[in-house]
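User: I'm writing a tutorial on reading structure tokens. Could you give me a worked example: one chain, its sequence, then its tokens, then a sentence or two explaining what the tokens reveal?
Assistant: Sure. Here is the example chain.
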Amino acid sequence: CGSPADPCEFSVPQAVRLLAISDQPMWPFRTILYFVVFWVGCFAALVNPIWGIVNYIMAYQMNPPVAWWGAPLVNIGMRFSMLAVGFTVLGLVTGRRRVPQTRPGMMLWEWGVIALIFLAILNIAIGVQYGPTAQYAFEKFGKLQVFVLILARLATTRRNLRLVFWSLVAGSFYLGYDAFTAPYRSFLLGRLESFGGPDIATSSGAGAHLTAMLPIIGIVFLTAKKWIWKIPIAVTGALTVNAIVLCRTRSAFIGVIVGLLVAVFTAPRARRFRIHCALIAGGLCAFALTDENYWGRMSTLADRQALEKDGAVTARVNILHAGLQMLSDHPTGVGLGNFSRTIGRYNPELRHRSPHNTVIMAFCELGVLGGIIFLLICAESIRLLIRCSRMAHLTDDPLETKLIAYGLLISLVSYFVAGLGTERFSCESFWWTLALPVCLTRLVEREAAARVAALEIESEPSVAYLPSYRGLCHEI
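And here are its predicted structure tokens:
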């Protein structure tokens, strides 16, 4: 090209671009499959918006842009999570007949979420500085809370709630398989890093997320109607445990231990023996997946001298002290995304460091009021689960309801405890575990009210007035 006999018709940059296009390989089969399934989920959300929820949960856990097969999708500039949320919101209008009726219209838990959104908006004006980092954090937090509020209204029937659970199980299978097949370059100092979604890309984040998914996998296993479905669920549980071990994170280990204690002492009486046997069998299998290096790292939790010399523990203690000073100077909060930008003012060695603690993050970024509201939201989720367990006998499937409440309680407690060693305040899956008790509460109240109304009509066919929705449940 460019010789006198064959003059070049293109400039050098144009020729390079043409060569790049002509050399572009075909998409891998996995890329094509995900691309097709994602768009099917988007259009299915227009008919029934619950499929938009499922699509978003899968996109969040798989995070195609960071996968080797997702490189072609990055080049076309698609934002999968944003598209999934957009189609879900649109589906609330086009598929409104499939949107379950929610009573009460607004719950105390939802008002708490709205209060946090209001504080986040307020901190744009009174925070430290609203720069690009704060803008990204605010947009992410806003999208997260909108999705959570939609989830709390859509996953309120048994079918929809089961779809959400199965999407979490499918995502856990993908993450577990990804960890099982991870190359050596994915490990840093013996710990698995950089896999899964953006909030679970670190070993601590992935460990905390998968720790919370284990009880949900157990829910699906115990409530599966056919034994054939229990086989892939059991495989998913094994892969998930293996991934937690590969992360080698102490915060997840503590979360698992606390979750196991809750699981032992709160197991429903109807399935207590089976659950305890499953816990023992699962614990033995999990122990078989560990090695000396894993227990060497976990043993430092019981060695005070080792903890005092551990750089990660020392950094967390220093961050705690600096965070308390930050909160003292800014009781109304520094604003979302500004903790890492501000912590260096109190300790230069901690410049740009994450708080590594969910509660510290909430208090420092949204102030004392925001931190208190956050803790109240967590407490309200636990209260709702206890209430659902007590009202389970009024539902269409009392045993399944009790098992769901039991599993969600373990998941929430495990995630919260693990979150004390890593930042989960802006993590989407953490808020899912907080929102699922709201979904279960609405399911229980709807079924309980329907049963009471049916009994009332059978006993007094001529009655012209039925008590209010809350009154029905209160009478029982």
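What the tokens reveal: The first strand starts at residue 187 and ends at 188. The radius of gyration is 25 Å.
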